[in-house]
Amino acid sequence: MHSPLANIAQIRPARSKRISSYDRTGGNADRIQIAAGERVDLASIEGAGAIKHIWFTIASRDPMYRRNIVLRMYWDGEDNPSVESPVGDFFGQGWGLEYNFVSLPLAASPRSGRGLNCYFPMPFGNGARIEVENQSPTPVDAFYFYIDYEEWPEVDDSLGRFHAWWNREITDPDPSGENEWSCLAPELKHPSDEGNYLILDAEGRGHYVGVNYFVDCPSPMWYGEGDDMFLIDGEPWPGTLHGTGTEDYFCTSWSPAEEYQHPYFGYAHVDHSFGWLGRAHAYRFHIEDPIHFQESIRASIEHGHANNLTLDICTVAYWYQTEPHKPFPQLPPSEARHPMPAISVTDVHRWRHAWRQSMGGGKLWGNERPS
Predict the structure, then answer these.
(1) Do 147 and 54 reside in the same domain of the chain?
(2) Nearest C-alpha neighbor of 75 from the set 133, 126, 20
(3) Close Cβ partners of 138 (under 8 Å, ≥ 6 residues apart)
(4) CA 344 to chain centre
(5) CB-based contact 85:69 (threshold 8 Å)
(6) Domain that holds residue 100
(7) Per-residue confidence of the chain (371 residues) as pLDDT tens digits?
(8) What are the backbone dihedrals phi and psi of residue 336, each rounded to the nearest 5 degrees, phi first?
(9) 155/240 same-domain check
(10) Residue 345, domain member (yes or no)
């Protein structure tokens, strides 16, 4: 294990450079504007080197701009992006929201999480390109950015290329019902990863370094009895890396519903509703314990024990690997990336009304069972 400061004193044959949105006239209009539907190259770099830090802040009249603006990165002249994600989710901001977030490789800083920072190192041997696409129906009024990078004489062959992939699924419950904590019937067994929510499916040689996990739970029941499962190099289930529950994978315990932010793991956002209703953002970065693969990796997690819950799950997986990489599935259109509506107090009261009718009406408290 090495301290993050272990190599800070090393003198290297590198040149530090920056591409930013500064006003080229010497004025104070230090931003670019992006029309609706426009794709813009923020950086196009030749030669070898590594991106060391990225900072964005954005002003838009579109309330969903963080889901509607897409970030892509390309290394070494490739045609398929190695990074493709809505810009908010990439930096650890779920559902188009703005909130503060602290971790070692990613941060969303004040005011109110609007300063988006990335410290994942991103080496390249023959050029790098970073673009954004405004899939909003309105222009981006102001996009400010820094892209800090180093020029190197050459790149070490042992360095993988940085990748990040966004996925989203509104999961299907088991046909027997949403039976978390055996509240409806004895729980089922699930001796496979079939039906799991997919975090990553990659081919090549490299190592997985973490995930931002955004879950919207439409029930006050705990959503996180799902085991994490990693199948490495085509190995069969259960594989050599099999977990015990959602909060366990995120290094917490006992169904948390509170914010906690460690450099490597935590909960950056919870709804503070009742039970576990609503939106939670958990994160886990494998800085000290990357998950290595020589041929392939399939990372997934159950949505409730035995995949018994309907959840709206979005993730951004982060990893390094050799190129070429397996091309990503087509990114859903912007409207298909928007979050589900929040469950309201009125919705819950309607549930109670339907339950009362199913019980025949009368003086009912709420915990009665059918006879």
Answers:
(1) yes
(2) 126
(3) 36, 60, 61, 62
(4) 25
(5) no
(6) 13-160
(7) 567 788 899 999 999 999 999 999 999 999 999 999 999 999 999 999 999 999 999 999 999 999 999 999 999 999 999 999 999 999 999 999 999 999 999 999 999 999 999 999 999 999 999 999 999 999 999 999 999 999 999 999 999 999 999 999 999 998 888 999 999 999 999 999 999 999 999 999 999 999 999 999 999 999 999 999 999 999 999 999 999 999 999 999 999 999 999 999 999 999 999 999 999 999 999 999 999 999 999 999 999 999 999 999 999 999 999 999 999 999 999 999 999 999 999 999 999 999 999 999 999 999 998 87
(8) -80, -5
(9) no
(10) no
This model's pTM is above 0.90:
yes
Domain-embedded: residue 90: yes
Nearest to 265 by CA among 246, 277, 279, 252: 252
* Residues 243 and 264 grouped into a single domain: yes
Residue 336 located in a structural domain: no
Of 138, 160, 182, the position where a domain reaches its end is 160
Q: Are 76 and 154 within one domain?
A: yes
Same domain membership, residue 135 and residue 27 = yes
End-to-end CA distance of the chain: 60
**Coarse DSSP helix, strand, coil percentages of the chain, rounded to the nearest 5 percent:** 10, 40, 50
